[in-house]
Design brief:
Blueprint (H helix, E strand, L loop, with lengths): L1 E4 L2 H7 L4 E4 L7 H11 L19 E5 L2 E2 L11 H4 L5 E5 L6
Parallel strand pairs: 1-5
Antiparallel strand pairs: 1-2, 3-4, 3-5
């Protein structure tokens, strides 16, 4: 069971708490975790990844074991701590702005 932390706007859309649990078959990657998340919460489709390209949406970042993995391949294995459920896979809303 993979723990997934969601930012507030995705929690509201999905009607869930800040952390959800998803069952993911091997391999456990960004892609397979988000695939499972979107199966359970279909209203999240298109909010985390682009419909056509499956690319991560701008202003969302992915973290695993405290490390920003947003720019890594979506098919790279997640750390053992995430796979074992010790640490969550985190989807964080990035902050942008100016003066």
């Amino acid at each position: 069971m993979i723990r997934v932390y969601l930012p507030m706007h995705l929690r509201r859309l999905a009607g869930c708490g800040d952390e959800v649990h998803v069952e993911v078959d091997s391999p456990v990657t960004q892609r397979t975790v988000i695939d499972s998340l979107e199966r359970i919460y279909p209203m999240l489709r298109g909010t985390i990844r682009d419909y056509e390209t499956s690319s991560r949406r701008p202003f969302l970042r992915f973290f695993a074991d405290g490390v920003d993995i947003s720019l890594e391949s979506p098919d790279e294995m997640l750390p053992k701590s995430v796979v074992d459920g010790v640490e969550p896979f985190m989807i964080i809303g990035a902050i942008a702005g100016g003066c």
